[in-house]
Here is the input.
Amino acid sequence: MGRAVEHQQLSGLLDTAPLVTLTGPAGVGKSVLARAVLEEHTARHDGTVVRIGCWDGLADGGVTDALLRAAGLPDAAARRETARALAHRTAHPCVSNRRRGRAGRAELPDTSTPAVAAGGAALDALTAHCRKHRVTLLLDDCDPVLDECAQLVRRLLRADPGLRIMATARRPLGLPEERIAAIAPLPVTLGEGIADRPSSSSPSVPGPRHPSFW
Here is the structure.
């Protein structure tokens, strides 16, 4: 992969920072590098990785529900279905489960949970799962939902500052806890891969020797 220096430095950042974001242009290898670093990191710490790809077309519920599903936890739709089933089972047999709406039509009782409470419960479940299984979260290719990813990461780190999260994107998430690794394209030599030796008039086109970290 040709990223030994970046790999080593990212491993060090991940040991000390709750949020590490790899930034750089499309196709530079951010996702490949992130997975390689996390594979080694989780092997050293006997942990696991929960990854979502934000370019994969997230279903209803966005980033939060995608993470819950990836972690094997119930998402919003599953929680609503569970609430309805519980309400149906616990309803008194002599009391109708239906009520009349304004137009006189029968309606099912409202078993929904307020959005804030449901979201808080989902985050609590996710952070507890991460603690128990030593999970590192990988938000891969955040660009289509960058603001949503930033909001979710902010809430997760407030709930548990000990979480470890890695993100890849063209731009940083913009959070105070964030350590940023700007990944540059690998150096390319003109004529590389051609059988004939390049002439002295074909100079190499180097990239930066080291990534920028801040």
User: Anything to note?
Assistant: The first helix runs from residue 4 to 16. The domain at 4-72+134-199+208-213 is CATH 3.40.50.300 (Rossmann fold).
